[in-house]
Task: structure prediction
Amino acid sequence: MKGGRSFVSLTLACLLSFVARRARAEVLVAPQPRWVLEPRAFAGGALLLGKARELYTGAPDVGLGVAVGRPGATLRWRASLDIQPAPDVGPGVSITLLRANLGAAVTWRRRLVTALEAGPILRRIAIEDEISRTALGASVVAELGWRFRPWARWSLTPSVRASTAWFYGDLLFLWRDVAAFITIQRETVP
Amino acid sequence: MRSARHHSFRVAVAIAVSTLAGACEAPGDLPDDQLLTSAHFRYHARADTLLDPTIMDRLEAHRTEFDETYGVESGIVDYYRFRDYADLVANSGCPLPCTSGRSVMAFAPLHEHELVHAFMADVGEPAVVVAEGIAQYAACIQPNLALPVDPGQWPAAVSAGQARGDGSNEALYDFGQRLVSWMHGQGPARFVDFYRKGISTSDPALFDVQFQGEWGHRLSEVADAIEGDPYAGSFCPCTAPAIPADGSPASFASGEEYRTLDVTQQSRVVLTNDGAQQVFPVSCASADGFGGNMDPEPTGPTMTVARMSAGHYLVTTPELEAGTATVRQAQAPQDDWSCEAALVAPIHAGATEIILWVTADRALVPASLSDLTWFAIDLDGPHVVSAIAPGTLISCESSCGVAGPQCSDPFNDQGVTVTPQSTGPLLVGVAKSTGEAVDEIGHSVGVRIRPAP
Result:
């Protein structure tokens, strides 16, 4: 829990620091003339934390998204959609998380990626023919990764993410997980 | 006093934060002019509340019994006793008595249901239906009768926890009590472990997944199983002192304590109370509810005449009838409860209020009038007859087999006035009625006979 909080705090601090410096830089440097839109895809696995771990320990997570920014800039605005299916939690029981996020990512020294995203999340629980419920919630995701450029137009980023979600209907319970991901993203050369 | 004020501030902040979940609003002016302390309690009250310091002994005894039964031990409980209901609503942030963590907000001197929440506070924060269920189920002073919940409605009962602050959904409490009764049957330690690991949710699907993971049954299966009588009552370990069998009195604070009673064979048990409270015996194993708070409250001594099977019973009083009950018992084995048998030992109804009581296993829906439990009442003036437990059937005869005055009116809770019979004692037959939800389960039935005003 504390590790997760620290991670989110670190990511947030990095982002704020960057935005402040970026604002100063904008005064001196002429803005880039155009924006680029870079598609990205990611896949990984999540490990649940806290009491959610009583339900199941882990699940795969895959997603698609886009990053928007100026060519060569270190800041990218992000939109992403990911799904985390746990089809075999118990006999006839499946739990699926579907998350849509908006956020920002900053790449430090072309390598270190930090990102913070937030958005709505759906939790669908189905128990064979007994009951199925979809709960709406909100989630926050913090990411820390290392960016490689194995190809000219694509980057490959292994990363770890920590996410926290609260669903309507849950009272004092936060659904938390940590995940390891590989992201492939189109890179626009300035 | 200063530390107490500091503590109150911290509690106020804690409650304000915790109630963001929606159960309550932020509290206002918490009672803290008077403070009583004991090993496990801090008891806060307003300056104008008359406090009996022995309340701390009763709180400790109640807690010891609970903790030993369930093997739990939470920290010190802060009991905020408000002046009255209006004070509670205005200053607690809750529309009804409530608990946040180990802080209880109530206006009753000892609120058994809320105290259970506080006793379990350090164990965990499970689904609301479990938290409310144990608070209803673990009851000695105010046993609760859980009405049956349609098995198909269990998701609605579980999800009602989202709005528990308004206390409006009885299914949450009834289903929760029955579900906890089932889990308790698998072993108190296992139940406490489930409570500890529980997820704080009112999402029925999430709760079902967790329940199935722990107990190996789906909730729909268990909802079917717990519709029956064995899951209708509260549970009490009944470790309180017994009312002496030799006829000497046992005194206890009404609404704050109870006493126990052992019956070795089916008997007519007479409980005389020098205090101004109604007194009810209820089975310890499955306390199936008891008489309600019916206006007007007794103004003088009462006498309960009960038909009881062999067993271990608790003896308690209605919640709002304050004061000290001083109770004596007398038992006489009796198997024949016919009208003719009743005439052998008529009950004199003078200034003393009479309660006729039949415990759950003897309170059946009758096939004929001969199946009723009969009592003969020797009236010395007009008296008011009224049902005191839900689902009570009352029939009166002027002599055996001869219809007497009408002595029940389903549309009048205040009862029916009867006068002395020229033919002798009034014969009152008592049984369980049919047609209402409460009649689908076994429960005690009772009749109140009080002097007409």
Chain A has a mean pLDDT of 87.
